[in-house]
Amino acid sequence: MEQRTTHHALPSVERPWLKYYSEQQIAEPLPTGSLYELLIENNSNHPHDIAIHYLGKSITYGEMINHIEQCAKAFTAIGVQRGDIVTVAMPNTPEMVYASYALNKIGGIINIIHPLAGEEETCRYINEVESRIVLMFTGTYAFMKNALHKTTATTAIVASPAQSLSPAARAIYNLKNIRHRIPSGGNILTWQQFMALGNQTPLPTPCRAPGDHAIISHTGGTTGTAKGVVCTNLNFASLGQQMLSGRVSQRQDGTMILLPPFINYSYTTLFDAFTQGHRTLLIPKYNPLQMAHYIHKYRIAYLLTIPAYLKAMLKIKRIHPQAFASMKTIVSGGETLDEQTENAINRQLTSHGSPVVLEKGTGMTELTSGGTVTYPSCDIKGSVGIPYVKTNCKIISVDDGHELSYNQKGEVCRKTQGAWCRRYHPSA
After folding, report:
1. pLDDT tens, position by position, 68-77
2. Any bridge partners for residue 183, and if so which?
3. Strand locations in 90-144, DSSP E?
């Protein structure tokens, strides 16, 4: 029979990784507001700062907050109340941002799904949470327009990716995407029609607490059917705080959102950027050959990405000599990064002005997103780093679940703000 470890030798008790954090980082209190409240608290006094860069257009924090308030009134006008679940199938667009914060303000829960998941999967995602309201972009509507009757949805709001562009640019987009035209009437609302419904509706009082459910996101389905994971305001806010803990973040630093918002990895970065008052570059459709250009043009300081995108960046032939000079943090996560690619990316970063090297991390949807990361002070080849400062970690026996000591193999368990998170097993 395997001998159990003594209490004092357990990594989750000793937490040796805390030696890499300062006393201030360890003692820093957790955020106390909702995602909407954190946005307003940190940005309402900076209305002229840039909040969003989107397809060549810049949107200020003042404009963004006004759109959020109008959107909150519109959701209230169609009957969304605290605890109602609204399904959102959108790429990275300003309308996705407005709707996310508006729902958070009034206490709605966002069921965020892949905008191109397909008819069968989209119907399942809507029905399993019994959404009455669905916000989708024109690409989702193209394959769902004849399937909405199969769902619990009674109202569909459809927004074009060109909605925030100038009228001329929007007209050009609509000509190029005729199949994405939105019909009027019935249970279908265009974004303009939806927002207009808020004109005669009083602005609702914020109705959200830190511990309230905020977002339902979905796992990758690597161990079976993708599962919905409910995350609170505190989950997102505390993880965002940990991601920037100890880093030099300043207002109007640039953050680029490449990854689609239906994964928490992207959503956490998005919320954190706006909480910090960053300039956030939204990329609705990823073009790998433009990645270095975007970083240089928009002076991007923070980028969380995946190995596939990094490998694509290595294929760019012409890059400005100082394209990466603005970088403060670049992190790879989501899947395994091989050492050869890591070394090649670091050479590319250094040779084009970057003062930082690539960091690696790992996480899971059930943990909201990231759980560990490598810092320059603790970067071992092949490692995914140490737990974030407010995150705990242990290795457990796959046989009986007891915690193992150092240098033993088992299953990774992580805890952040209240409960141990463990990968789902169909037999469990």
Report:
1. 999 999 999 9
2. none
3. 109-112, 133-137
